[in-house]
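Changelog note: in this version the structure field was regenerated for every chain. One regenerated record is shown below for reference.
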Amino acid sequence: MNARAGRTAAATGTSRLLTRPMLLLLVASVGGMGGFYLLLSVLPLYAATAGGGGVGAGLTTGSMMLATVLAEPGVPWFLARFGHRAVVGAGLLLLGLPSAVLCLWSSFPLTLGVCLARGVGLGIVVVAGTALAAELAPPGRRSESLGLYGVSLGVPSVLGLPAGVWLSDRLGFEPVFLLTAALTLLALPAVAGLPERRATRAERRSGDLDGQGGDPDGRSGVPKGSRGVPCGPLGAAVNRSLVRPTLILGAATFAAGVLVTFLPLALLGGPSHLAVVALLVQASVAPIARWGAGWWGDRHGSSSLLVPAVLAVALGTAGLVRLESPVVVVVSMILFGAGFGAVQNLTLATMFERVPRSAFGRVSVVWNLAFDAGMGLGAVGFGLLIDRTGYPCGFAVTAALLLAVLVPAWRDRRYVRGEAT
């Protein structure tokens, strides 16, 4: 049986995908990411209206992503030391509670401080959740499991991104800050049912922060000892087979950082509620595409869709040059959402396919670092650019960057085909 047929047979098995631990992970993720997305486009508006301008708006997202990137490498160590329940619970609290402080005081430095705290919480939740989703997947259905987990991250954006902008416009910023804190607190009970296993002292000394001790069940699809990943939180980064998926993801999230931070500002003064509709469309399409890409990846290989996914992201970004046309903006958001959702799952599943199971935690760190670094750089870089060029030119430059990433996307597709034959 060839590699593709083997994947298809495994993927169509009867193993349960939605177990109790997986369901509780999804509940915790929905609560945490609901708190994240509610403020993702609101805090840039809050900073801009307080006199920060485009640079201040970009710094809110940029500072949060900086804190996320700095926190993520240490998450596997904290998980091994304290267990998933304590660490994920702390991450949820950091994502939500600091926002309530903004109801008491209003200043740009305090806003940046809240963004930094939220960034640490985000880093904890996404690294721990991604690794757990891969661990809890039944044999042959990891890509689909990651797609399901991606839905739990994407569904909150469907309501959170547009609702945050709409509520802040109707009720002011303070109710949105309090709602964010409440959402993350409501997710805490689900944390009690997550797997609690901590690494033993011997595993921590050996650097096996995931506590898996190799790949005895072969679920990673990589035989023990082949294409191994060096120890350490960032050991996976030196695996050359992960470079192109990491680069592709970083470019896509660069564009996402631009979009979620500046689209509401770019559409100010335009048709009423267009920003809300555009964010809602993008956020609705992305999780569907992410799950669909997971279903496809288990049956046909995760890298086979990378080129069309990247192209969709690039075309969706390029369409924003026509900000004066509501139809073009909405269609662009459909393209962007479909491509961005697919890129997330395809790159993540590809990276897990290329390492042993013992490296899942470290691969989760690398993937999330690329995601968050790209988003932060996009927000800050675009904020500096538009003060000189304006929004249409800035979106065109971002689209050109994405088109350049089609080259590594095509080469990675050929690499995987060669590995499978």
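Spot check on this record: Residues 1-14, 200-238, 416-421 have pLDDT under 50 and may be disordered. Residues 41 and 97 are 18 Å apart (CA to CA).
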